[in-house]
Each structure stands twice: as C-alpha cells, then as structure tokens.
Amino acid sequence: MRIAIVNDLPTVVEAMRRVVLSTGEHGVAWVAADGGAAVELCARERPDLILMDLTMPRMGGVEAIRRIMDRSPCPIVVVTAEGKQDHARIFEAMGAGALDVLHLPGLVSSVTAETADKLLAKIDTIRRLTGIRTRSLSAKPARDLTPGSLASRSHPASATSGLNAASPAPLVAIGASAGGPAALARILGCWPADFPAAVVIVQHVDTQFAPGLVRWLSSQTPLPVRLIQSGDRPQAGLVLVANGEDHLVFDKAQRLVYSPNPTGAALRPSVDLFFQSIVKYWPGDVIGVVLTGMGRDGARGLKMLREAGQITVAQDQATSTVYGMPKAAAELRAAREILPLENIGPRLAMLVQTRRRRPRPTPPTSARVGATGLTRKNPQFHN
Predict the structure, then answer these.
(1) What three-state secondary structure class fits 367?
(2) For residues 233, 238, 239 and 241, what is the CA-based torsion angle, rounded to 10 degrees?
(3) What is the pLDDT of residues 253-268, one digit of tens each?
(4) Would you report the helix, strand and coil content of the chain in percent, each value rounded to 5?
(5) Distance between CA atoms of 66 and 82, rounded to whole angstroms?
C-alpha cells in the first residue's frame, strides 16, 4: 500500500515511516506536517491510506479529514497519542469520515514491538477492507491481532432483564462504520427519553475508544447509553453499544454475547454476523438499519432481515460520509427504504409505533445480488 503520514512531530513521522517500511509490503507516498498541506498533497497524489494526527498547526486533523473526504476521498485512520483526553475530537473525526482511530502513545517516545504490531495490524485490516493488494502478500490468511481473537471474553451475566422473551419490545438494530458516530448522534438525538423500542448499535471502533463513544453519545441524547456486557438483554428505552473487541451476536436465550469467531473477519464487531443472529434467535419485530461506512459489512445481514419480513433501512448516498455499506445494501435490494440521514430518526420512531400495532409482514421474494463500490457521495475511493 502507498501510505501517507500527516503529523507535525518529526520523531513521530520517522517512527511511523520505519514501521510502514518494515515489512517490505508498503511504501510512504508522502508526508505532511499539517492538515492544509495534506489536503493539497492528497488532491495531487491520492494514497491508498492516510495516517492522520489530530493536533497540528494551521489546520487540524478533523478539518483536514472533512476536506479530503469532500474533495479527494480515500481511507483515513487517525493515529493519536492523546487517546482518552480527546474523545470529542476523535468522534468528530470519525464523523468526518475517518475509518478508525488508533491510540499509540508509544510513538511519541519509542517504538516497541507491540506498538509496531498494532499499527501494522490496523494497516492490514484496511488493506483487506479495501481489497488493495501488496507486492509480497502471503497466501495465508492475514493475522488477526485483535485481543478478542485469542479467547472469548468472560463478562458476568447482566442483571438487565426487562424483556419478556414471549413479547419483546421492538428492536432497532443499527450498523455503522466511517462517519457513524455523527450519524448515530443525529438519530439518537431526535428520540425522546421514553422511546418505546430497544436499540442495539454495532459501530466499527477500536475497543479502547468504545467507552468514549458511549459517553459521547450519552451527551447527544436523552436516552441512557451503555456498553454491552455479555449476557445483556435489550430493553425498551435503552441504547446498547457493542464493544469493539469481539463479534456481537444473540444466543438461543435472546441474550447478547461476544464471540471471537470468525477470527478472520476484517471488521470487528461484524454487522453481518449480528444481523444474522437476529434472524436466527430474536423472536420479535426488528427494524434493521445500515448507516454510512466503508465496505460491505451489514448488507447481507440486512437482506436476511428483509427476507424474514422485517423492516430494513439504509442511509442514502447524498448524506453518507462514505457510501460503501449502504450502497452494498441498496444494490442487494436489502433496504426496503433508503433515506437521508435527517429523515432516519423520525422515520424509525414512526415505524416503531406502527410495528407495535400490526403483525409482521409476509417476507418478500429474494432480490438479485449486485456489485458495490466505495464512494463518498459521488466520488469513489481509487485503489
């Protein structure tokens, strides 16, 4: 991959450059010391991936991401040493179009093997997601270095039990990736504190930033928002958010549990796996939603939900930060409704009320499968 580095600290730039070049599979496309220079360089020479800092002179990372995604869209990962101290800007960056955020405090002082492995693993995840080939890739499956790939987490069972399995509240299941935090805030912000549906969100985010995402979303909505622990059950009026470490699925008892399998999945947690488990185990009505994001995750699962007679919604192209996941859903005809972001929240509220009053509709016939690309509104990511 041709990787660009945007950071104003020469020591950090040099550290990242050494890590990028260490495998022989990647090269450095260019280096920029501030966001404004990155916008200009990206317009002239679009890389396969940008590693972007947030705090820089002249123009910071958030504004640079916003302008790049508008003019010369390409995959961007925020690499920061600030971590928990700057959650607001981190999720603003993801709302602007960053695919992910990587917290690497070790880059400031010295590069350890662990720091290098984390950066290379993230680069490899983006490579698999975008389908970009490198000149010396092995035929073996890519290494899965996420902590949850080694073993299942053992959380104590939650005491949450406000759900009658025979007659559960309607479930709103949402999948999102790049641009998701801002989209989620817009949707959750228009719902009242007594919203009559259970809400479960699978947002692609590094596990160390998941608690910050919950805190940030809590500040955007009157609804309670919290991270899911294994054994939780959805309940009306509560927003549950998946941790970023393992896949989230329902079990036979309609409990939310984490699983490390499949270990080879490029994105964790997988929206597709979550939606598929809903079809298999959730006994009540569901509204499935796919929001902005890169790749195809969620499209097949959304199609399964629609074929099971559930209501399915995808964000439209014009309001998607990255039109990948919802585009795949649209081309699979997995979405019954394709809506602009500003209409999704009110529409879901209306559908929840309607869904509570009428029986589940007859499943439609299977739709033809189509291909998909990755776009930011009209432009595409060029590999």
Answers:
(1) coil
(2) -30
(3) 999 999 998 887 777 8
(4) 35, 20, 45
(5) 20
Residues 243 and 346 in one domain: yes
User: Does the bond joining 262 to the residue before it have cis omega, within 30 degrees of 0?
Assistant: yes
Is the Cβ–Cβ distance between 4 and 38 less than 8 Å? yes
Residue 149 annotated in active site: no
The answer on pLDDT for 316 being more than 50 is: yes
pTM for this entry: 0.74
Please tell me what DSSP assigns to residue 117. Answer: H
Query: Pairing mode, if any, of strands 247-250 and 256-259?
Result: antiparallel
State the maximum Cα–Cα separation within the chain, in Å, rounded to a whole number.
Answer: 62
Task: Please tell me whether residues 184 and 105 are part of one structural domain.
Answer: no
Cβ-contact 15, 41 below 8 angstroms: no
Give the domain CATH number at 228: 3.40.50.180
Spatial contact of 190 and 349, defined as CB atoms under 8 Å apart: yes
Amino acid, single-letter form, for residue 180: G
**Structural domain harbouring 61:** 2-132
Q: Is residue 272 part of a domain?
A: yes
Axis-axis angle for helices 180-188, 341-357 (nearest 10): 50
Residue 177 among the catalytic residues: yes
Q: Rounded to 5 degrees, what are φ and ψ at 49?
A: -160, 140
86 in active site: no
Q: Residues 204, 206, 246, 247: which is the catalytic one? A: 204
Cβ 274 vs Cβ 243: under 8 Å: no
Whose tokens are 């590069």? That residue is 111
List 177, 230, 270, 277, catalytic entry: 177
**One of 53, 100, 285, 297 is an active-site residue; which one?**
297
Whether 223 and 292 map to the same domain: the answer is: yes
Q: Where are the alpha helices (DSSP H) in 174-270?
A: 180-188, 210-218
Length of the chain: 383
Please identify, among 101, 132, 163, the residue that sits at the C-terminal boundary of a domain.
132
In a domain, 377, yes or no: no
pLDDT (tens digit per residue) in 88-140 = 788 888 888 888 888 887 666 667 888 889 899 889 888 877 766 544 333 33
Tell me whether strands 100-103 and 76-80 are parallel, antiparallel or unpaired: parallel
Q: Which DSSP helix (H) or strand (E) runs through 76? A: strand 76-80
Distance CA(78)–CA(320), nearest Å, equals 19
Tokens of 280: 């298999």
